[in-house]
Design goal:
single chain; about 375 residues; alpha+beta; five-stranded mixed β-barrel; five-stranded antiparallel β-sheet; rod-shaped
Length: about 375
């Protein structure tokens, strides 16, 4: 019986391994682009960066420590250089797929990091198993640019699981919609007409601003933004601004808002400020063919009829006045019930020239001729 050589005995002392087998080993060296494992075989096992993670250009020395234990799968028993080529990523992906299958069956909410942004959606990784979230399922609103999600951790559910066809689809949209519905119900259960509430400006249009009330949006129409005149909502409000409003009306799922708080109503003390006979200064706000509306205070406009502008005949107010012009006039009528005030510039001219003889009015002429 021939004696075995030392080399033969040493070789037989090592275990045998096969392609596809899962092995355990200890990290004996880590380089930026590869990991070396002692797997109890005659050759060490090598895990390249590409076989460790899906992330590119990562430094493996920041992820793995010498002496730590690892499981890996054999890709090649001999890579051509006498070393065993291993994969950690693919073994983890198999485990990840199992995890995803369980989540799919149980409709479990998962949380994972976005590792890639594509034209058509996002790629997230769960235990090295890749999940595709189409752009239509990323958000409950249309988003043209998805780059803001790169590197973020997001929640989603698995809606399609077919690893053989490499179709593992995630859905974030339904979670957002479900959360919004919960918030909407909670909001409508606690609010009522007249409530004062704070909200965040979500969108501004030419006709108003949409305010996020924390569960539903309310419309703050341009006519309800102030007791004064608002020329442009886009100049008055900015997206993201926090505003204080009160609920004017609720109809089904629509909420009408207002910032015309009753205590700030300028008509509350208008009778004291704008009594008949008072001489005031105001700014021409707008004009019509029959007269000009003059702003006496924010929210209070008075009518200066074309016949009350001058003692001379004037065809239309724009012949002698212009918007924004400041004028002085006398209040000749005050109707608090209808919130109407009438002005006269002619009355001031008459007062200033009271000593001068005035031309007879048609009514006086008729009286004298009788």
């Amino acid at each position: 019986m021939s004696e075995q050589s030392f080399e033969q005995m040493l070789e037989e002392s090592f275990k045998t391994i096969r392609n596809g087998e899962v092995v355990e080993g200890t990290v004996i060296d880590v380089k930026p682009d590869e990991i070396v494992l002692n797997i109890g075989y005659k050759s060490d096992g090598i895990i390249t960066r590409n076989e460790y993670t899906n992330e590119s250009n990562v430094d493996l020395t920041t992820l793995v420590e010498v002496g730590s234990a690892m499981e890996a799968k054999v890709l090649k028993v001999n890579d051509g250089d006498g070393q065993v080529l291993l994969t950690y990523k693919r073994l983890a992906a198999e485990k990840g797929n199992k995890r995803l299958e369980e989540a799919f069956e149980n409709q479990e909410v998962l949380k994972a990091k976005v590792v890639q942004v594509l034209n058509g959606g996002l790629i997230v990784v769960v235990d090295e198993a890749r999940v595709f979230i189409p752009s239509s399922l990323v958000s409950d609103v249309y988003e043209k640019d998805l780059t803001k999600y790169d590197g973020q951790e997001i929640e989603f559910v698995i809606t399609e699981f077919n690893p053989r066809r490499r179709r593992i689809i995630g859905d974030r949209k339904q979670l957002l919609l479900a959360k919004k519905e919960e918030l909407r119900k909670a909001l409508f259960e606690k609010i009522k007409i007249g409530d004062i509430i704070e909200g965040t400006v979500k969108n501004v249009t030419d006709f108003g601003a949409f305010i996020d009330l924390g569960g539903a949006d309310g419309l703050l129409h341009i006519s309800e933004m102030s007791w004064g005149r608002v020329e442009s909502p886009k100049k008055a409000f900015k997206v993201g601004e926090v505003v204080r409003v009160f609920i004017k009306d609720i109809r089904d799922t629509k909420i009408a808002l207002s910032r015309k708080f009753p205590e700030d109503n300028p008509w509350n003390d208008a009778a004291d400020k704008f009594g008949v006979g008072t001489i005031i200064k105001g700014k021409v706000a707008r004009m019509t063919d029959f007269g000009a509306f003059v702003e006496l205070a924010p929210g209070i406009d008075a009518l200066l009829h074309v016949s009350q502008i001058s003692r001379e005949h004037i065809e239309k107010p724009s012949d002698v006045l212009k918007a924004g012009q400041e004028i002085e006039a006398k209040i000749v009528d005050f109707n608090e019930a209808d919130k109407k005030i009438s002005l006269s510039m002619k009355a001031l001219i008459t007062d200033d020239n009271s000593a001068k003889p005035e031309e007879d009015t048609p009514a006086q002429a008729e009286s004298e001729n009788e």
